[in-house]
């Protein structure tokens, strides 16, 4: 029997395989065995210096005007399930309730 790697999130030794995915029963973290666990090099940080990853929930810390519209993203707006990108000026692709798809900069959000 082959030894499965420990969970990269909580270091639990009780991981199990489900197809090509590895799953941790303690923290419910799932990761693929096909994709390498190496970092891409760029680390995304919020306004407080906390590291951000895909799927995080963040809170807007400043009123942000929506370009080309009269809408404003208010302070305290929670944005769920963010996606981090390295293209262009903005680091976060997300969908905000009541506004729709947007791109944000990490300097205007904090990890929730």
TrEMBL record:
The signal peptide stretch is none
Protein YjdM C-terminal domain: residues covered: 45-112
Q: Which InterPro entries match?
A: YjdM, YjdM_C, YjdM_N
Which part of the chain is the Protein YjdM N-terminal domain?
3-32
Instruction: Give the originating organism.
Output: Pseudidiomarina aquimaris
**Protein's name according to its UniProt entry:** Protein YjdM
Please report which protein family the annotation says this sequence is part of.
Answer: Belongs to the YjdM family.
Pfam families xref list: YjdM, Zn_Ribbon_YjdM
């Amino acid at each position: 029997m082959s030894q499965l790697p420990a969970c990269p999130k909580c270091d639990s030794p009780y991981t199990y395989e489900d197809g090509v995915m590895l799953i941790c029963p303690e923290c419910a973290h799932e990761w693929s065995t096909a994709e390498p666990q190496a970092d891409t090099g760029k680390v995304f940080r919020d306004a407080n210096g906390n590291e951000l990853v895909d799927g995080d929930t963040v809170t807007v810390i400043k009123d942000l005007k929506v370009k080309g519209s009269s809408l404003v993203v208010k302070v305290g707006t929670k944005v769920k399930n963010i996606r981090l990108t390295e293209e262009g000026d903005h680091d976060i692709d997300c969908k905000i309730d009541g506004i729709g798809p947007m791109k944000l900069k990490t300097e205007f959000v904090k990890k929730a």
